[in-house]
Backbone:
């Protein structure tokens, strides 16, 4: 009996051989619910930890974005609104004080559609109604003329308000310009070419003032208005009611207009700063920008970084050849496409304002050249905003002038590819 214990303990030590009742106990497995709760708890803890780091990163990005937006605002060049008048004498004061009077007086215009569709140019009944409406709103046009002759045109833009920045009323401006264009056309049609030319120059001045010192979004509207006015100038050059002195008056005004054309890089900076503060205000309808989602703050901060980069790379774009600007525009548009917030906060590339900017300016230079030729017979060499110099060809008493167009290629004055103007001296 004294020799069994070592054998038993030997088998216990090796883990084999003994299966007596005292040693037949298996460890209990934890409940599946306990395991599930443990996993959920671990995941929840990891989620909280991840959320902590994401929020911390978002807060850091947000603070940097606020700092960048404030810096961009402080670095904005001061716009004092000074610009030359296009005809007559310059007077002291801010044009927008007079423009605002004109806009208020035109607000009750009932014949708006007749002015906008230009039916008065072909329909006698519509013309009668338009003439009566102009007589009724003559004080509005007089206020427009006073404004166009002020030495300053400065609207106060508070870009730090982002999308809530107060801007001129675009719809009323479009109506006022439609009435002014009708007045100019009626004057020319009645043989009052001098008054017609002056009215067209005042319209161009108002359209210019509507986006000088503003943003490229506003420029998109104003450039369309300038396009319509240029159609009327083109018709003026072809009119038999105009004379050399009238064309000369237009040529001088258009030269001044070209020399005082608004600065594009400044408008880009205004748009950029406005976009930054729009992003900082949060998505539309956000009640408290201080409690925005971390994902939004990170993406918004990245968008502000992109805006800063675009502004830096856009400096001097007014002086660069168009082909270089077009290439850079494509590159910048591709870089901004990676951020979904860019299209709403900084829509410059969507609107293609840079291209329209150059094209409208080229067209006004062509009109200036045509007016100069009609007035004096001279054909000055003028720069082409879309190429090098405006191309010209004189045959007999007819001048054919063209810009190479937005493709940057000289197609010999092909009206389908180039911007072309043709005028004949009487």
Residues:
């Amino acid at each position: 009996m004294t020799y069994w214990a070592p054998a038993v303990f030997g088998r216990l030590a090796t883990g084999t051989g003994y299966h007596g009742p005292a040693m037949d106990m298996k460890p209990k497995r934890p409940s599946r619910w306990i395991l599930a709760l443990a996993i959920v708890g671990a995941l929840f803890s990891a989620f909280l930890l991840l959320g902590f780091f994401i929020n911390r990163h978002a807060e850091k990005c947000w603070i940097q974005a606020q700092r960048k937006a404030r810096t961009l605002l402080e670095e904005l060049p001061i716009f004092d609104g000074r610009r030359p008048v296009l005809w007559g004498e310059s007077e002291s004061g801010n044009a927008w004080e007079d423009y605002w009077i004109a806009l208020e007086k035109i607000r009750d215009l009932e014949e708006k559609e007749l002015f906008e569709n230009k039916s008065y140019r072909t329909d006698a009944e519509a013309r009668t109604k338009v003439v009566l409406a102009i007589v009724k709103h003559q004080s509005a046009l007089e206020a427009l003329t006073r404004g166009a002759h002020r030495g300053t045109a400065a609207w106060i833009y508070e870009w730090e308000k982002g999308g809530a920045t107060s801007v001129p009323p675009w719809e009323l401006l479009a109506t006022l310009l439609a009435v002014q264009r009708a007045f100019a056309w009626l004057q020319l049609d009645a043989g009052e070419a001098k008054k017609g030319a002056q009215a067209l120059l005042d319209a161009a001045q108002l359209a210019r003032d509507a986006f000088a010192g503003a943003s490229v979004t506003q420029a998109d509207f104003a450039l369309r208005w300038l396009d319509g006015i240029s159609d009327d100038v083109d018709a003026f050059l072809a009119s038999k009611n105009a004379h050399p002195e009238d064309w000369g008056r237009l040529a001088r005004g258009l030269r001044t207009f070209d020399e005082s054309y608004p600065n594009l890089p400044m408008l880009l900076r205004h748009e950029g700063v406005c976009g930054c503060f729009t992003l900082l205000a949060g998505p539309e309808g956000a009640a408290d920008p201080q409690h925005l989602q971390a994902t939004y703050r990170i993406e918004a901060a990245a968008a502000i970084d992109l805006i800063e980069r675009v502004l830096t790379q856009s400096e001097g774009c007014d002086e660069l050849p168009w082909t270089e600007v077009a290439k850079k525009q494509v590159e910048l548009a591709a870089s901004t496409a990676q951020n979904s917030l860019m299209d709403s906060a900084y829509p410059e590339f969507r609107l293609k304002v840079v291209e329209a900017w150059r094209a409208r300016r080229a067209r006004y230079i062509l009109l200036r050249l045509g007016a100069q030729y009609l007035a004096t017979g001279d054909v000055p060499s003028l720069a082409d905003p879309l190429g090098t110099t405006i191309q010209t060809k004189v045959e007999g008493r007819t001048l054919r002038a063209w810009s190479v167009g937005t493709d940057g290629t000289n197609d010999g004055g092909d009206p389908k590819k180039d911007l072309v103007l043709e005028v004949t001296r009487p």
